[in-house]
Design goal:
The structure is a single chain. By secondary structure, the chain is α+β, with helices and mostly antiparallel strands. It has one domain (about 1-170): Immunoglobulin-like. Helices cover about 25% and strands about 40% of the residues. It contains 3 helices and 10 strands; from the N terminus they run αββββββββαββα. The longest helix is centred in the first third of the chain and has 29 residues, at about 1-30. It starts with a helix and ends with a helix.
Length: about 170
């Protein structure tokens, strides 16, 4: 029983470290922090989260809807805490409808949606694990459209450029 509890505590600790890293990256995406590399509009940012023994890096893109300048979406691609998989997280502004998730299109091809995990003070986080099919689409695509709903009737698609994604992804440590 104690082994199970210790394992659960470790898992919870890793999740909290990941959320702290996400929060730090989210803030860094809006601030003028140090950038390790830049490929097209994609930036590589690195942080050492509190309590972590190594630097964690992610590629980050921030896009603003041209028709609604108050609608900003941040895309973050990073390794999981155990470094066995990569995730794509999208931070949408507060006030979006959560049941719909974030719609994902690459070059007008519908690739499903990302489910929201939680909302923090600076936005709501949706996430998907990057599989080979999605990764290939992102690497070869020209644009990614992130769809959110502000009301049940009003969907908004924010267009994000994919130029530089492949290079940034392939250099992500």
């Amino acid at each position: 029983m104690c082994g199970l509890r210790l394992s659960s505590v470790r898992t919870l600790f890793r999740i909290l470290l990941g959320l702290a890293f996400l929060e730090a990256l989210t803030c860094a995406a809006h601030a003028q922090g140090a950038i390790k590399a830049k490929h097209g509009d994609w930036e590589t940012r690195c942080e050492t989260p509190p309590g972590a023994s190594y630097e964690q890096c992610a590629i980050v893109l921030s896009v603003v809807d041209q028709e609604r300048p108050n609608l900003t979406m941040v895309v973050i691609v990073l390794n999981t805490a155990d470094r066995k998989a990569r995730l794509m997280r999208v931070i949408a502004p507060l006030g979006v409808l959560l049941p719909s998730g974030v719609g994902l299109h690459v070059d007008d091809q519908d690739l499903g949606h990302l489910n929201y995990l939680q909302c923090l003070a600076n936005g709501c986080i949706a996430q998907v694990a990057l599989d080979e099919k999605l990764l290939d689409k992102l690497k070869t695509g020209k644009t990614m459209t992130l769809g959110v709903f502000q009301t049940p009737e009003q969907g908004v698609g924010v267009v994000a450029p994919l130029a530089g994604f492949k290079e940034a992804y392939e250099q992500l440590p």
